[in-house]
Protein backbone atom coordinates (compact mmCIF):
# COMPACT_ATOMS: atom_id res chain seq x y z
CA UNK A 1 0.00 0.00 0.00
CA UNK A 2 1.27 3.39 -0.96
CA UNK A 3 0.57 6.01 1.64
CA UNK A 4 -1.92 8.76 1.14
CA UNK A 5 -0.97 10.54 -1.98
CA UNK A 6 -0.18 14.20 -1.79
CA UNK A 7 -1.58 16.37 -4.51
CA UNK A 8 1.46 16.81 -6.67
CA UNK A 9 0.41 16.40 -10.22
CA UNK A 10 -0.44 19.04 -12.71
CA UNK A 11 -4.14 19.11 -13.47
CA UNK A 12 -4.99 17.37 -16.72
CA UNK A 13 -1.87 15.27 -16.89
CA UNK A 14 -1.95 11.52 -17.01
CA UNK A 15 -0.66 11.19 -13.45
CA UNK A 16 -3.22 13.66 -12.18
CA UNK A 17 -6.01 11.76 -13.85
CA UNK A 18 -4.84 8.41 -12.57
CA UNK A 19 -4.46 9.75 -9.03
CA UNK A 20 -8.09 10.77 -9.06
CA UNK A 21 -9.75 7.62 -10.23
CA UNK A 22 -8.37 5.19 -7.70
CA UNK A 23 -11.09 5.32 -5.08
CA UNK A 24 -11.43 2.02 -3.26
CA UNK A 25 -15.16 1.77 -3.81
CA UNK A 26 -15.07 2.79 -7.41
CA UNK A 27 -16.78 0.32 -9.68
CA UNK A 28 -14.92 -0.74 -12.78
CA UNK A 29 -17.51 1.04 -14.94
CA UNK A 30 -16.98 4.26 -13.02
CA UNK A 31 -13.24 3.86 -13.28
CA UNK A 32 -13.42 3.69 -17.05
CA UNK A 33 -15.93 6.53 -17.34
CA UNK A 34 -13.94 8.80 -15.04
CA UNK A 35 -10.84 8.24 -17.08
CA UNK A 36 -12.50 8.90 -20.42
CA UNK A 37 -14.25 11.98 -19.04
CA UNK A 38 -10.99 13.35 -17.65
CA UNK A 39 -9.47 12.84 -21.07
CA UNK A 40 -12.12 15.13 -22.48
CA UNK A 41 -14.42 12.57 -24.06
CA UNK A 42 -18.15 12.99 -23.69
CA UNK A 43 -20.48 10.02 -23.82
CA UNK A 44 -23.77 8.50 -22.78
CA UNK A 45 -24.09 5.88 -20.10
CA UNK A 46 -26.03 2.61 -20.27
CA UNK A 47 -27.95 3.79 -23.27
CA UNK A 48 -31.08 1.63 -23.38
CA UNK A 49 -31.54 2.18 -27.10
CA UNK A 50 -28.69 -0.15 -27.94
CA UNK A 51 -28.33 -3.89 -27.56
CA UNK A 52 -26.74 -4.74 -24.23
CA UNK A 53 -27.03 -1.17 -22.88
CA UNK A 54 -23.34 -0.37 -23.39
CA UNK A 55 -21.61 1.19 -20.38
CA UNK A 56 -20.22 3.95 -22.54
CA UNK A 57 -21.63 5.20 -25.85
CA UNK A 58 -19.52 7.65 -27.86
CA UNK A 59 -21.58 8.76 -30.85
CA UNK A 60 -18.83 11.03 -32.15
CA UNK A 61 -16.53 8.05 -32.56
CA UNK A 62 -19.20 5.48 -33.42
CA UNK A 63 -17.85 3.46 -30.55
CA UNK A 64 -19.40 1.67 -27.61
CA UNK A 65 -17.54 0.29 -24.63
CA UNK A 66 -18.57 -2.58 -22.41
CA UNK A 67 -16.85 -2.96 -19.07
CA UNK A 68 -17.25 -6.63 -18.26
CA UNK A 69 -16.80 -8.54 -15.05
CA UNK A 70 -14.72 -11.61 -15.82
CA UNK A 71 -16.99 -13.98 -13.94
CA UNK A 72 -20.37 -12.88 -15.27
CA UNK A 73 -19.18 -12.56 -18.82
CA UNK A 74 -17.02 -15.69 -18.84
CA UNK A 75 -13.73 -14.16 -19.77
CA UNK A 76 -12.04 -17.04 -21.49
CA UNK A 77 -8.74 -18.18 -20.12
CA UNK A 78 -8.90 -15.62 -17.33
CA UNK A 79 -7.92 -16.51 -13.79
CA UNK A 80 -10.78 -14.42 -12.44
CA UNK A 81 -13.23 -16.61 -14.23
CA UNK A 82 -13.72 -20.00 -12.67
CA UNK A 83 -16.89 -21.98 -12.46
CA UNK A 84 -18.40 -22.26 -8.96
CA UNK A 85 -17.93 -25.68 -7.40
CA UNK A 86 -21.56 -26.16 -6.44
CA UNK A 87 -24.63 -25.93 -8.67
CA UNK A 88 -22.34 -26.40 -11.61
CA UNK A 89 -25.11 -27.02 -14.09
CA UNK A 90 -27.03 -23.96 -13.03
CA UNK A 91 -24.01 -21.72 -13.22
CA UNK A 92 -22.61 -23.01 -16.44
CA UNK A 93 -26.00 -22.68 -18.14
CA UNK A 94 -26.42 -19.17 -16.83
CA UNK A 95 -22.93 -18.00 -17.71
CA UNK A 96 -22.96 -19.58 -21.13
CA UNK A 97 -26.22 -17.76 -21.75
CA UNK A 98 -24.58 -14.50 -20.72
CA UNK A 99 -21.73 -15.07 -23.09
CA UNK A 100 -23.97 -16.02 -25.99
CA UNK A 101 -26.04 -12.91 -25.37
CA UNK A 102 -22.87 -10.80 -25.39
CA UNK A 103 -21.76 -12.27 -28.69
CA UNK A 104 -25.18 -11.67 -30.25
CA UNK A 105 -25.43 -8.11 -28.97
CA UNK A 106 -21.96 -7.19 -30.10
CA UNK A 107 -22.72 -8.53 -33.56
CA UNK A 108 -25.91 -6.47 -33.65
CA UNK A 109 -24.05 -3.33 -32.65
CA UNK A 110 -21.39 -3.93 -35.26
CA UNK A 111 -24.09 -4.45 -37.88
CA UNK A 112 -25.45 -1.04 -36.85
CA UNK A 113 -22.06 0.48 -37.57
CA UNK A 114 -20.68 0.67 -34.05
CA UNK A 115 -17.18 -0.27 -33.08
CA UNK A 116 -17.42 -2.45 -29.99
CA UNK A 117 -14.67 -2.43 -27.37
CA UNK A 118 -14.70 -4.71 -24.33
CA UNK A 119 -12.66 -3.81 -21.29
CA UNK A 120 -12.28 -6.71 -18.87
CA UNK A 121 -12.24 -6.45 -15.12
CA UNK A 122 -8.85 -8.16 -14.96
CA UNK A 123 -7.43 -5.48 -17.25
CA UNK A 124 -8.30 -2.89 -14.63
CA UNK A 125 -6.23 -4.25 -11.77
CA UNK A 126 -4.12 -1.63 -10.05
CA UNK A 127 -0.89 -2.53 -11.80
CA UNK A 128 -2.26 -2.73 -15.32
CA UNK A 129 -5.15 -0.29 -15.51
CA UNK A 130 -3.21 2.77 -16.55
CA UNK A 131 -1.77 1.08 -19.59
CA UNK A 132 -5.15 -0.42 -20.49
CA UNK A 133 -7.03 2.86 -20.12
CA UNK A 134 -4.53 4.76 -22.22
CA UNK A 135 -4.84 2.09 -24.86
CA UNK A 136 -8.63 2.27 -24.66
CA UNK A 137 -8.46 6.00 -25.24
CA UNK A 138 -6.35 5.49 -28.34
CA UNK A 139 -8.67 2.74 -29.54
CA UNK A 140 -11.53 5.21 -29.33
CA UNK A 141 -10.04 8.37 -30.77
CA UNK A 142 -7.14 7.27 -32.84
CA UNK A 143 -8.11 4.99 -35.67
CA UNK A 144 -5.01 6.05 -37.56
CA UNK A 145 -2.90 6.91 -34.55
CA UNK A 146 -1.72 3.47 -33.62
CA UNK A 147 -1.65 1.07 -36.55
CA UNK A 148 0.54 -1.33 -34.63
CA UNK A 149 -2.10 -2.55 -32.24
CA UNK A 150 0.14 -4.69 -30.11
CA UNK A 151 2.86 -2.17 -29.38
CA UNK A 152 1.97 0.07 -26.50
CA UNK A 153 3.56 3.45 -26.18
CA UNK A 154 2.24 4.78 -22.90
CA UNK A 155 3.93 8.12 -23.31
CA UNK A 156 2.05 9.06 -26.40
CA UNK A 157 -0.41 11.90 -26.07
CA UNK A 158 -3.04 13.18 -28.43
CA UNK A 159 -2.89 16.94 -27.95
CA UNK A 160 -5.22 17.80 -30.79
CA UNK A 161 -8.19 15.75 -29.67
ZN1 LIG B 1 -10.51 -11.50 -17.06
Automatic annotation (TrEMBL):
A GO MF term: endonuclease activity
Family: Belongs to the vsr family.
Domain of life: Bacteria
Any one GO biological process: mismatch repair
Assigned EC number: 3.1.-.-
NCBIfam families, alphabetized: vsr (TIGR00632)
Free-text function comment from the UniProt entry: May nick specific sequences that contain T:G mispairs resulting from m5C-deamination.
One protein family per Pfam: Vsr
UniProt entry tagged with the keyword Nuclease: yes
Protein name stated in the entry: Very short patch repair endonuclease
Originating organism: Bifidobacterium moukalabense DSM 27321
Coiled coil: none
